[in-house]
Every structure is written in structure tokens, then in C-alpha cells.
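Hi R.,

Here are the chain sequences for the assembly we discussed:
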Amino acid sequence: MENYPVLIVVAPFISGLLAGLFVWIEKRLSYPIVLTGLFISAFSAIQVLIQVIGSGPIQYKLGGWSPPIGIEYRVDLLNAMVLCLVSGVAFLNLIASYRSAEKEIGDRTGSYYAVYNLFMTGLLGVTITGDLFNLYVLIEITSLTSYAQVAMGDRDRGPLASLNYVFIGVIGASFYLLGVGYLYMYTGSLNMADVAVLIKGSQGSSTVLVAFILCILGIWIKMALFPFHVWLPNAYTYSPVIFSRVVAPLMTKVMVYVMIRLMITVFGYDYIFNTLHLSDAVVWLATIAVLAGGVMALAQKNLKKMLCYIIVSEIGYMVGGAWMGNQLGMTGSILHILNDVLMTFALFLAVGNMVYRIEKVDITDLKGLFGKMPWTMGGFVLAAFSIIGVPPTCGFFSKWYLILGALEKGAYHFAAALIISSLICAVLFFKVFEICFFESGSPGHEHSSHGSVVIEEAPVSMLIISGLVSLSLIVAGCYSGTIVNTIILPFLK
Amino acid sequence: METIISIKPLLAVLASLLVIPMLVSSSDKPNVRESWTFIAGIIKFLIVVSMLPAVLSGKHVVLTLFSIAPGADIAFRVDALGMLFALVASSLYIITSMYSIGYMRGLKEHGQTRFVSFFALAISATIGAAFSANLLTLYLFYEVLSLATYPLVTHHQDANSRISGRKYLIFILGTSIGLVLPAMIYCYHATGTLEFAAGGIFSGQLSKPAATVLLLMFVFGFAKAGIMPFHSWLPAAMVAPTPVSALLHAVAVVKVGAFSIVRVITGIFGVDFLLSFNLGAVVAAIASVTILVSSCIALTQDEFKRRLAYSTIGQLSYIILGVALLSPKGMTGGMLHIAMHAFGKITLFFCAGAIFVATGKKYISQMVGIGKRMPLTMMAFLIGSMSIIGLPPTGGFISKWYLVLGTLEGDQMIMLFVLLSSSLLNAAYFMPIFYKAFFCTKEESMFEDKIQEAPMMCVVPLLMTALISFVLFFLPQPFLDLAQLAVKGFIGG
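And here is the predicted structure of the full complex:
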């Protein structure tokens, strides 16, 4: 069906609005409506991916208007993959949310689901659009809806975290918008493909240079690249866990996608690496980001916050790879988008299960959790190994490409940073495991009492989702060769 | 080289992996659970043995599971060296499983299901490492083994095992991520392959200093081999229940370390390459220091298992030393020592455990006169220690014989001296135990004259391994043939 691309975005949008309406009519219907919407979206995304793998990129003109006047959706291998990830994660998280949402946000679930789907619409739109200004609008939709969701979390700190997030988010978006303005000034067009053609050969133009810097800077702020990361940890920690579970894996990774899209499709490799020579500086910045994220994670007492700083570190991986200026680095970066979405999702799903049972997830609250929640912890351990980079989990293989890329460029500092980051993550997670494994949750730690630990697991629906996602880390790892050969390399050609 | 494509290597790995769900589901029926372990162990052993004729006739059994990148697949290749190691590990797994029953039940240990499950996982990883076709696959199983062993080392879940577990992780995981991983990726970067090849994978890409650094990164990085100064995790790991110390820390884990170094020396660098840079001598020197120093430390240890651990550290370096001699006889001796040491040392650990189960004694100074109480155990101890010292009529004599011939072949008198003086040291730390066990006055003896052995499930396995050590002197053929075949493959081309 040729309307799949538009269905990906429209289905969650309409179902989100409907769910909002049904809050006043029949609350219980909100959930099935959003679920259906996301299912249609995920299904269409997979269809589109299959289609793109089979017969190349798809162009879809919204409302029949052709570009550069109308808005165009362009789906190639890269965003087809990201679309699948976003809609898939959104759908799976919604299933896992069924039990935990009520517990966490009480009777506000109906409106929450409405906002949730609008948020997803934004992310999917950002990924699929081929128009620079449209991209800005959709980023803003994403941001606005996520401010609302963050504020629904922790009653004391949620609102402040959200406010911080608003301020910095707005600054980031303004930078990007300003950049787009310069581009429009220079080219008179907002369509990505069109702009790319029009700025070709204008290497010396300072307008293009300013536009480039502003756009990239804006996106960096949005993706929380160190040192622009300050909004992220609080926002993701104090939001309700049903939301952290999607925003942590998706938001930053979609922004990395936008950066890669700008680099490859709009400004072009040649401009960035041969005219501007920015590669070295940015790789250094990424190196620092990788290490700084890891070190800050070490200082955290709250599990959720620790994971947030790990995300900051992982952003450094992807930015470094993308700016390496060679195919291996870019391959690693794109592969890491996929892997990091899966790993972070798996980690936060496990955290969600923990929150369901023990409410607070300061690391010291996790005592005896291996006995109490063995399945949740199993998923958590797998995801942690993937972050550390233990084969055959997928985290190893993207790291593999990233380090190869760094060696090819001679950026030994970045390679070293990745290795050190692996070691830091090993320390981080084993610190947690030790508490879960050695310290008994119940008082009176005796050998004989180990047998009597009562298993108190999260609901089955949540366990199944978290188990599936954790296992997918191994599957994605084993098939990373296939993923690289069918999606990433053909895209980069 | 003729190859057979077969699924058997995979089945051999999976046999003990797929049984884990059965183990977990029968956790409240210990007898059922234990029979599953035996079924898996026997099937695994039979699959390994079924490949023996093909390997002995000079063929390789191969299977590629996943292609990751050209030259770096997840793939199996069963050659003579891998077969030798797999035979040792899979046969001893069955015997150790029997011993575990006696030991764990005798001491009424907690968490027995967890114990047998991770044991099964560890042995799967060991066989996987033995059958790895390239460095990437080897690294994968090496890491899986490290992580699977952690809950076994820390089985008691007390403060002591927590500290030991930490030490274990820092040494094992720290070196594999910090040294082996970068070295491996550098190899791939330089040559584009990680496939083990008879002549190595380098052809002029490495200068002598670079090769030295890379080789040392591998030798120290595979810290499971216990090369000093990365050895101290092994004595610390002795807090684990004795079956773990016996199978994993005398056979599987530590020998995966030594095996990996042998693989790197023979398959990545290649004998001729190392000879041309005279790098074998560097490794041999490091191994010699470890042999002598650890033997001296062993003399000072009063805790039985710690003395055995230091002895193991020394004996592992025999394997490295033999292979680093780079002469046919020396390499044969080194590889043969994988098998001979395994049967000898596991006997000794079984004895230590049996004494602990029967009397609760851990320290050698408390074992005066124990021979009168546990004569069978102590006779087995005699055979095991003779094998480690290298006295006829035990298997250990054969491997030491080849090692000594190897030093003579290469005219390396210093190494000969190291081997001989180490044998004396071995005798000095083992013979007093045996002597005091039997030859003491009534007043000195700490035990009553009544014979009271450990449970049958403990005694039978140690008699079996002692018997095998004895028989191997007369019938070393399967292992000797495999070792010679392997050496022919690595040197003769």
C-alpha cells in the first residue's frame, strides 16, 4: 500500500486526539485506542522498511503538493530503520504501561495516553520528514509534549526538572530555527534535498557556515551532548517511569538521527570534512563526552540517574563515530543508534519493573533484588552487559565498528575513551549487582534464609516485554553483520 | 586441509546450555535436576568424542554461525588442539558433577540450582572457547565464561566472597576489556582478519616493537592464565565451593586462559613470525618467572586450597612456557600439559574438598595424621601430586618429559633449569602433606584411628581422576596424538 509512510505518523496522531476526547466520554477506551494507533504505526513502519530494502527510497508528497512548495516525506534505509525503532518501542512500552501507568499517575492515565501519542507523532514526524522547517515544528511538538509528561512525575522535583528542560529545549530549538532561517535566506528553499542541491559549490559562503553551525549546535543541545547535557538527567529521572522508558531510548537517538541526516543529506560529507575540517575538534569533544558521562554516572546514588548519565556517555559514542569522517565510524554510529535504543529500552524496562515493586530506586534500595525479582534482574543484567560491551550482545558490535573507525582515522584518544568507558560501565553495573546479590533485602542475613526469599515480580505483561527486549539484544548482536550489510552500508553508498 | 561442515560443534556447546531451563524448573526436585546435569554432560561428551576420529585423521570440523564482518565471523573450527582441550573439559565435567552432588549436599549449601545452572553455562562457554575458529569467537566465549563464573566464585554471598568476587572481576574483566579487546581490534584493523591460521595473520604489517607490545597485551590480557602479576585473583577465588575450584580454577577457566594464549601465539602471530623476532623468548621468560615465584609462594601457604592455587599458577605457565619455546617437542609438551595437569590437579582439589566435607579442616597444619582417617583420599592425593611433580608412573611425567626435551631441542639451558627446579619445589610443597598424613606418632596425630571417608559421591570421583592420571602414563595416546597433530599443523604447515 502506498500510503504506509503517512499512516506511520497519522495513526498515532488521530488516535492520540481521539483518546483525548474519550477522557470525557469513556475513560477506559483511551487505552485501546492509543494501542491500536501505535500498532498501525509500527506495522506500517515495518512494511515501509521492507519496501525500502527491496526497492529503494520512497518519496511521499503530502496532500499531493510537490516539493519544494509542498511538504515531502522521504524514507530511505536510515529513517526506515529509525521509524521501526520509534514506533516499535512506543508500542511495546504502551503494553508494559498498562499495569504500571495506573499505579504511577493514578486517574490521569487517559490524558497521559493522549499526550503520549502526540509525543510519538512528533518523533515519528521528525524522523520521516524531508522538510527543514517541518522538522522544527515537529521537534517542538515532541518537546512540548515531553515537558508535560516530565511534569507528571515526581511531585516535588518533576515540575522544576520540566521547567529546566523547557528553557534549555527552547534555546536549542531556537538555534536550529535560526540556522534554518539562514539557509532559507541563502537558498529560498526548505526542502532538504532541494537545499542540498542549492548549496553545493558554495563552500566559501559565510551564510551557509553560520547556518550549519547554528543547526548543529541546536541539535546538540537537543540531544544532550556534553556539555549541553545538564537538562537531561533530572528531566528523565523525575519523570514517571512509563515515560522515561520511551524518552530515554528514543529522544536523544532521534536527535542523533537528525544530526546524521543534516550531515549526510543536507550539508554533505564533502562540505563538513573537506571544507570545514571540523572532524578533529568534534571527535575530541565526543571523547570528553564519553568520559565525562561515565565519570558523572559513577557519582550517582539513584539508579535512574546513573542510567541517564550513561546515556550522556553513549551520545558521545554516536557523535564521535559520525564525525570520524570515515565509513567505519559512521557505520558504528548508525548501528549504535539501533543498539542504544534497544539497550536503553531494556534497562529502563527493568527499572520500570523495579519501580513497580519497590517504588524508590536509589541503588541502596535494591538489596536482595536477585532473589526477589530474578526475571527482571536477568533482563537488567543482559542489558548491562550490552552497555559494557560483552559479546554476543549488540553493544559490543557497534563499539567494534566505532573503535575500528577511530583506528582508521588515527583518533587513538577516542578508541581509548571507548575502552575506558567500557571499564567504567563494568564498575558501575557491578556496583549495582553487588548490592542486589550480596545484601539481603530482609533483616537477619543467614545462609538458611536464602531459600526462603519470596519472589515478588512485576506483572507478567511487563516481564514479557522486558524479557523480549533484553533477548533482542543478543539477536541484534548476532545479526549485526546482516544489519550492517542490508541497511547501513547500502545507505552509506 | 580437509574440512567437514557439521553442526556438532554447536550441539556440543548447546548441550549444557539448553539444559539450564530444565535445571531451573526442577529446582525443588534435586534428584531430577542432577540427572539432567548428567544427561547434558554425557551428551556433550559423546558429541565431542564423536568428532575425535575425524580430527585424528587430520580433518577439521567447521561451522559458521553468524557473519559479523569479513574475516571475523562467529564460527567454530574443531582442530586437534581444540579437541584436546574439549575432551579434557567435557570428560571432567561429568566427574565433577558427581563430585558436586556429594560436596554440595554434604555441606547443605544454599542456592544449589543457581550453582548447577551457572556451572552448566560455564562449561558451555569453555567448549565454545575450545572450538572457536577465530579470535572474535574466542573472545566472546572468554567473556561469557568470566561472567558465568562470577556467581560461582561468590556463591557464599558473604563479605569474604564479595571481596574475592571484586578482585576476580577487576583482574579478569579489567584485563580482557582493557588489554585483549584493543589488541584484538588492532589486529583486525591491521590485517582485516582474525581467523586463526597456521602461519599467523600478519605479513609484514608489524614492526618488532609493535609486535612485542601486542603480544604482551595478549599474554597479560588473558589473565585467566594467571601470568604474574595478574595472578592474584586465583588464590582469592578459592573462596568458591570446591567443585568450582576443581573444575573451573584447575581446568576450565584457567586453561581457557592458557589455551587463548596458545591460540594467539600459534594462530595469530604464528611460530615463524615469533621466531623471526625472537619473541618466544620474551614470553618464555615471563612464564619462567611466574613458575618459580608462584612455586615459592606455594611453599608458604597453609590453607590447602590456596597452596593448590599457587601451584596451579605455576603449572599454567608450564603450558605457556612449552609453547613459547616454539620447538616441536616443547610445544607438544605444553599442549599435553593442558590435559595432564588437569587430571592431576583436579584430583588434588577433590581431595581438599573431601577433607573439608569430612572433617571441616581447611589448613594443612591441621591435617597431621589424616591419612589414617581418610586413606583412600590421601592415596589419590599422592597420585595427583606425583603427576603435578612429574614423577612416573603418572601422566604428568609424560608432559614434563616433552617439555624437558623441548628445552634441550632449543638448547635453552636456563629453561631446563627452571623446569627442574620447579619440580623440586613442587615436591617440596606437596610431599610434606602426604608424609605428615601417614607418618606421624600417635601423639602428633589430630585424628582418631577410625577410617571415616567423605560421602561416596566425593570419594568415587577423586579415585576416578587419580586412576586416570595413573593410566595416562601408560596410555597417553589420545592426548599425545592430538598434541603432536596440533604441533604438526602449526609448524609443519
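Chain B touches chain A through 36 residues (CB under 8 Å). Chain B has 21 helices and three strands.

Let me know if anything looks off.

Best,
T.
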